[in-house]
Amino acid sequence: QVQLVESGGGLVQAGGSLRLSCVASGRTFRSTVMGWFRQAPGKEREFAAAISGSGGGTSYGDSVKGRFTISRDNAKNSVYLQMNSLKPEDTAVYYCAARKHGISLTPDLTSYDYWGQGTQVTVSS
Predict the structure, then answer these.
(1) Are 85 and 15 contacting, i.e. CB atoms less than 8 angstroms apart?
(2) Are the C-beta atoms of residues 96 and 6 closer than 8 Å to each other?
(3) Nearest to residue 20, comparing CAs of 32, 31, 33, 36?
(4) b or e along 51-90 (b: 16 or more beta carbons within 10 Å of the residue's beta carbon)?
(5) CA 24 to CA 86: how far, in whole Å?
(6) CA atoms within 13 A on the CB side of 90
(7) What gap in Å lies between CA 81 and CA 72, rounded to an integer?
(8) Is 57 within 8 Å of 51 (Cβ atoms)?
(9) Residue 97 CB coordination number (10 Å)
(10) Residue 20: is it exposed, middle or buried by C-beta count within 10 angstroms (0-12/13-18/19+)?
(11) What is the pLDDT of residue 101?
């Protein structure tokens, strides 16, 4: 029902910035909780950020709090992740995700029903 496509990944030096985008299809987008997760090589997928359907509520993982900002533009069916002060440990594949029915901004990846293909972010030192 919901299809997600991420873009904006790439190679950046430590301390730099990058902005990820996720374009969503589906007529329920405006009321759908959206999240960003990341997965580094050999590690479990990790919660980065989530945003409420209206954009009025946000939640962040401890590892990115203060450096990343999630936002959305429902008129463009898009959600964004602004990544500042990037560190080598931020290197990962970043995934956009959407909840089907739930409204909480949970960090539990099993609560998200739709996933994008991922976009690679590499931070060099």
Answers:
(1) yes
(2) yes
(3) 36
(4) bbbeeeeebbbeebeeebbbebeeeebbbbbebeebeeeb
(5) 26
(6) 32
(7) 9
(8) yes
(9) 23
(10) buried
(11) 86
Q: What is the mean pLDDT of each run of 10 residues along the chain (125 residues)?
A: 93 98 82 94 97 96 98 94 98 96 95 96 97
Give the span between the Cα atoms of 21 and 83, in whole angstroms.
Answer: 11
**Rounded CA separation 59/115 (Å):** 18
Contact 48, 61 (CB under 8 A): yes
Token representation of residue 76 = 């463009």
